[in-house]
TrEMBL record:
This is S-adenosyl-L-methionine-dependent methyltransferase. One of its GO terms (molecular function) is S-adenosylmethionine-dependent methyltransferase activity. InterPro entries: Diverse_substrate_MTase, Methyltransf_11, SAM-dependent_MTases_sf. GO terms for biological process: methylation. SUPFAM superfamilies: S-adenosyl-L-methionine-dependent methyltransferases. Keywords: Methyltransferase, Transferase. Belongs to the methyltransferase superfamily. Residues 29-109 form the Methyltransferase type domain.
């Protein structure tokens, strides 16, 4: 995720290839606060990436949204006053921060989505292998994205054990029940199904954080050397 905070990161391209929520009060990377602004009087958006913040500010201005404030920061040290208001966070520290900034009765919502699943097509198994096979990209994923693949399940117990109350663990679609029996399945999705070309699907793969990290590359070399007799 640190790669997203670099100066050269193209936030607009990243956002154009990511899914869009179907409801006005749902989240999307970098600029979800502009949707939340329709439901609340004042919204603060925080992201560790200056590029994401700049893109979100442009979106808010284009949509004439004035009740949103954007700040560069992290989940472990939110640039927000006390009593005022994941998967890449140090979660225990983040829970303490969430309790600090939320006013009494405030709600914490940890929302995520998995990699895309191609509906009714053999490409689905290819996507699974590409993302989570040791032969391909699995060894390059960091622990944060592994939480996403697991639907945040390991985070439920810490939230339940914290000072938060009325904790719900929800998801969509029904297939989650096969892996996580305790999840509550919602009647409808908050991210719409979309039609994508294979080119767009390939573009989505390029937004994965595991593909933005640098790796050492060796080039096996060879030569044929001979000397002409004197």
């Amino acid at each position: 995720m640190s790669a997203f905070a670099t100066k050269g990161f193209n936030a607009n391209r990243y956002l154009s290839l990511r899914p869009t929520p179907g409801r006005p009060n749902c989240l999307r990377p970098g600029i979800f606060t502009t949707d939340l602004a329709r439901e609340f009087d004042s919204v603060i958006g925080v992201d560790l990436s200056p590029s994401m913040i700049a893109s979100a500010q442009e979106s808010a201005h284009a949509r004439d949204i004035t009740n949103v404030e954007y700040k560069v920061g992290t989940g472990e040290s939110l640039p927000i006053e006390s009593n005022s208001g994941v998967h890449w966070f140090k979660f225990d520290t983040f829970l303490d921060e969430a309790l600090r900034v939320l006013k009494p009765g405030g709600t914490m919502a940890l929302v995520g989505y998995k990699y895309p699943e191609v509906v009714g097509d053999t490409t689905r198994s290819f996507v699974n292998r590409l993302a989570f096979d040791e032969q391909y990209l699995l060894k390059y994923w960091d622990d944060g994205y592994k939480l996403v693949e697991g639907g945040y399940q390991p985070l439920v117990a810490p939230v339940m054990a914290s000072a938060f109350e009325n904790v719900r663990y929800v998801g969509y679609p029904e297939v989650w029940k096969q892996r996580i029996p305790e999840i509550e399945v919602l009647p409808e999705a908050w991210i719409d199904q979309r039609q994508s070309t294979l080119e767009e699907l390939a573009g989505y793969f390029k937004t994965w954080s595991t593909l933005t990290d640098t790796v050492a590359i060796d080039y096996p070399q060879f030569a044929i050397v001979a000397r002409k007799p004197l």
